[in-house]
Structures are given as C-alpha cells and as structure tokens.
Amino acid sequence: MANTHATLAALFDGIAGSIRAVSPVTEEIKADTFPAYIRMLGYDGAIPAAPSVLDSCPWDFIRWASDEGIADLLWSVGDRKAVTLGAWGGPWTSYQVSAGTYYVYIIGFNHNKELEGDKRIHFEFGFTQLSDGTHIAFSNGGYNLYINDSTQPALTRMNMSRTNTGGWEACTMRTGTLNGDTRSFKLACPSDLLSAVKTVTKYTDNVGGGSGNVQANVTATTDTFFLLNVNELRGTGTMNTYEMEKTEQYQYYKNGNPQGRNKSNDTSVDARFLLRSPNPSSSTQFMGFGSGVGLYVNADLCIALSPAFCV
Question: Residue 16 is inside which H or E element, if any?
Fold first, then answer.
C-alpha cells in the first residue's frame, strides 16, 4: 500500500531501526503501542484490537506491515495464524487432504533477501492448534503409494512418473499440486490469503537427471507456494552443493525448533515429507525428511508435504 506521508514514514523507519539495533523484537516495541502511527503511515483498513497478536490480524494488515518493512517489530519467528482450507488433491476422496483449519507459522523475516526478495514474511504450514498442538505435514489416503499416472496433477508426489529431470522448476508438485488449476493446494486457500501472498525467488537444481554438483544446474524460479529445500530445513544434507550456496536455513529451524512433523490425517504417526531438492546423484529421486533423518524419495511416491509462502 502506498505511503502518502513520506516524512512520518521516514521518522518511523528511524525509530524502528534504532529499536532493532538496541533491543530487537521485545514486548515493549510491539505494534499495539503505535496505533496512531499505523493510521498515519497510510494503512486504511481496520486496525486489529491487538496488532501484536498475529492470529488477530487480517491478511491485508499483515501484507501492509510487510510492505512497510515493520513486520519484525510486530511479530516474532514462530508466531502462528489460523488458515481455513478447502479439501484438495484427489481426484478420489480418500486421496484428498481434508478441509479444515490449520495454523501457519512464521519461519523468517526477509529471509535471504539479497537473492529472494526484501520485505517478505516467510510462512510454512502447519500446526493443529494456535499454541502447542501437533506439527503436521499434509497427508491423505494415498500416503506411501507409488502412483505413476500422467492424468492426475494434484497428488502428493513430486512427479507423475519416476524422474527428477527438470528439477523443482518442471516438477508436477510445483506446477500442479501446489499451484495448478485443478484440485490444487492454491485453489483450497481463502481469497484473503491469496490476495496478500507475494512471489519469492527460490534457487534449486532445476536440471536433475543425476548430473551431480553442477553449478549451472542451480537456477532461479519465481514461486507462490513452494516446498523448502534441504538446506532451508536442515542446514545440511544431500543436495547440489551449489544449491546450498544459494540458500539459507530458515531462522525458525536455526532456533532449534523441531524439523519433523506428523501426518495430518493421523496425527499420532510420524510423517515422511517432501523437499524440493533433487538428489544430485540420482535421476529418479528428490529429497525428503522423516524420523529425524534425510530421505531419498522416488519422484512418483506419495508422502506428505508442508507448503510455504511469503506475504
């Protein structure tokens, strides 16, 4: 949102910078202290009663705070917000992820901004509750099944056949399951969230095919909903080493929070879930994670996934 009060904006930016330098993200500088500044800086929507509580804020307010570059003064890494999703996936009901309310959480502010873009709040799905609860990855009745079927674009697998050729850029997970126009995750999201989402630049081995650690294989994509790569989740692991050089571990995981999660359709069971990195030494596998270890996952195997996005 355009800011029509340049002098006030500069003043607030100076205050925010001083606060960050001296005492980053403390309770004293949460945004509920500054409702007048919020109004004067140009936000023309309804100011939440408690702006420092992420879950109380509408997505347009969150987007505004991101655009103004003050999101890290309002909220903290790990804060959660409810998102109500429709059912998605399929086409068979048992192979759909159930509709319901899930909780996204902040995994970083302005993460890797020189390469990925500034003024972005990075979020990931999901939890079952606003606090505590179960850390989940989305799963369904197709979990642990190989489905080599070129007619179904929205299943929880990386590709329609057992190949990683084309890497993340060309895979069905990116173009169909997450962002496609048939039963995709994107179509299950509420319109207010979709209106707030920003694209982000992500770097991945986009050649695959078992060609190894080739620098030219690592290229940029412009993404809406995406999966984390090995480095963004773990900070280590099997991947094209040049992909690692272009990416960073998210602050949420740097802080020591658990990397594992459970199945959304059976929250008592540990989930194996997908990452977007191809296995550089295989022409058929992408990488995944589960039970505390990295996994090699055949591209046509349906397991679980945790979509991420930026606002």
Answer: helix 6-22
DSSP run (H or E) holding 169: helix 167-170
Both tokens assigned to 64: 């505004």
Helix (H, G, I), strand (E, B) or coil at 235: coil
Give the whole-angstrom CA distance, residue 147 versus residue 19.
Answer: 53
What confidence tens digit (pLDDT) does each residue in 263-285 have? 999 999 999 999 999 999 999 99
Distance separating alpha carbons of residues 38 and 46, to the nearest angstrom: 11
Place of tokens 């009060």: 5
171 HSE (CA, 13 A, CB side): 37
Reported as a single tens digit per residue, the pLDDT across 18-77 is: 766 665 555 455 555 667 677 777 888 888 888 999 999 999 999 999 999 999 989 999
Handedness of CA 144, 150, 152, 155 (dihedral sign): positive
List 136's β-bridge partners, or say none. Answer: 262
Residue linked to tokens 């068979």: 92
Residue 40's CB: how many other CB atoms inside 10 A? 16
Which residues are bridge partners to 257 per DSSP? none
3-state secondary structure the chain: CCCCCHHHHHHHHHHHHHHHHHCCCCHHHCHHHCHHHHHHCCCCCCCCCCCCCHHHCCHHHHHHHHHHCCHHHHCCCCCEEEEEECCEECCCHHHEECCEEEEEEEEEECCCHHHHCCCCEEEEEEECCCCCCCEEEECCCCCCEECCCCCCCCCCCCCCCCCCCCHHHHCHHHHHHHCCCCCCHHHHCCHHHHHHCECEEEEEECCCCCCCCCHHHEEEEEECCECCCHHHHHCCCCCCHHHHHHCCCCHHHHCCCCCCCEECCEEEEECCEEEEEECCCCCCEEEEEECCEEEEEECCEECEECCEEEC
Rounded Cα gap, residues 140 and 154, in angstroms: 12
